[in-house]
Amino acid sequence: MPCKQSELITAINSFAAARVSDDSVLTKFSANLVAKLLDTLTFEPEEEPEAETAEAPEGATEAEVVVESDAPVLKDPPVKKTRGRSKASA
């Protein structure tokens, strides 16, 4: 039988309080309770996105095919140039 949201929240709060108080017996008990409640959770299956297939021109190898995606390109942030300290002023 699935657990109630309030039961799971109470168990998580008990675990957090046990960790803060550094009580090993209470920590083990509350960890077991959280694990038992998590085992009762049921999830709906995830919807898998349709895979986009890129058609390669004839004679092209996999390395030659460039697939364009809508994913953002991550760039390194700009680095400020700072003057280094000399050993005499340190």
Please describe the structure with a list of short key phrases separated by commas or semicolons.
2 helices; single chain; mainly alpha; flat; 90 residues; 37% helix
Which whole number gives the mean pLDDT?
A: 77
Q: Write down how many β-strands occur, each being a DSSP E stretch of 2 or more residues.
A: 0
Structural class: mainly alpha
Low-confidence stretches: none
- What's the SSE pattern? HH
How many whole angstroms does the radius of gyration measure?
A: 27 Å
- Number of helical segments? 2
Largest sheet, in brief, is: none
Percent strand? under 5%
Report the helical percentage. 25-40%
Give the N-terminus to C-terminus distance in angstroms.
66 Å
Shape: flat
What's a concise summary of this model?
The chain has 90 residues and is an all-alpha fold. 37% of the residues lie in helices and 0% in strands.
What does this structure look like?
The protein is mainly α and 90 residues long. The chain has a domain at 5-39. Helices cover 37% and strands 0% of the residues. α1 (5-21) runs antiparallel to α2 (24-39). The longest helix is centred in the N-terminal third of the chain and has 17 residues, at 5-21. The model has no long low-confidence stretch (mean pLDDT 77).
